[in-house]
Amino acid sequence: MSLASTALIALGRMPGPEGESHELDLETARHLIDVLGMLEHKTKGNLDEAEQKLLASLVYDLRVAFVDAKKAKHG
Prior knowledge:
Blueprint: H1 2-10, H2 26-42, H3 49-74
């Protein structure tokens, strides 16, 4: 959840821990999303159903948010 929250902050979708806003940081967001994707792949078969669904949902939602942020930045 911490990695997902940090990715959302980097994507400008969530304020920082103290309510501050941050500039869009696509490089950091991409790295964090890739790490979560790797964790999803490496833990396949080792998580219970709820954990697996949560991780898959987070990765999917973050990937969509990344694409949206990239489109918005590059017009």
